[in-house]
């Protein structure tokens, strides 16, 4: 049985879940999966973004190291901002952003940023995203953000920025798995 839930495809055999699969965006849209990695003890971390077309082709990736940050939600919000800006730099016109942060998606949907310490970042996302012909921010299962997560792990305090025009070796297997799921 296959169930679709937002950007997530859930497969089950006799009710038992198999593996959550990455789902390509609708035709004509690009998808940017984003992920924030946060180290609570030192309040440092990174963001990772991966841009793919509706066929699952890799269109680019980026990772940024942030030496300061309050919490994981801030890192997820920065990842979303980095993804929106990266897509704009790549001349994407129609964009679907996916994050595994339900809290971020709820905050975005409410549109009430004034009381949040994330307000300036959310406003920047709103401003940049207004430049797309089509834009949506949706929540996905963490398993669908594996590629963005691995990219986030490619930067450190010593190597603060990574950008890829072609898929680096560290994510090639994941991209192949996402676009060619196993047949049960």
Automatic annotation (TrEMBL):
Residue intervals of the RNase H type-1 domain: 33-154
Protein name in the entry: RNase H type-1 domain-containing protein
CDD domains the record matches: RNase_H_like
Top-rank taxon: Eukaryota
Cited Pfam families: RVT_3
One function term, GO molecular function aspect: RNA-DNA hybrid ribonuclease activity
SUPFAM superfamilies for the chain: Ribonuclease H-like
């Amino acid at each position: 049985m296959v169930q679709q839930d937002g950007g997530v495809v859930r497969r089950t055999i006799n009710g038992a879940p198999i593996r959550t699969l990455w789902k390509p965006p609708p035709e004509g849209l690009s998808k940017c999966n984003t992920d924030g990695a946060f180290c609570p003890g030192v309040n440092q971390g990174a963001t990772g973004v991966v841009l793919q077309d509706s066929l699952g082709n890799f269109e680019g990736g980026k990772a940024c190291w942030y030496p300061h940050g309050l919490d994981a939600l801030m890192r997820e919000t920065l990842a979303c901002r980095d993804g929106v800006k990266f897509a704009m730099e790549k001349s994407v016109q129609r964009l679907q952003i996916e994050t595994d942060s339900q809290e971020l998606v709820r905050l975005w949907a409410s549109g009430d940023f004034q009381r949040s310490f994330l307000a300036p970042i959310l406003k920047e996302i709103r401003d940049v995203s207004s430049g797309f012909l089509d834009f949506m921010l949706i929540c996905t299962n963490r398993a669908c953000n594996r590629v963005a997560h691995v990219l986030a792990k490619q930067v450190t305090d010593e190597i603060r920025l990574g950008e890829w025009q072609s898929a680096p070796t560290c994510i090639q297997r994941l991209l192949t798995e996402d676009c060619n799921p196993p047949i049960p």
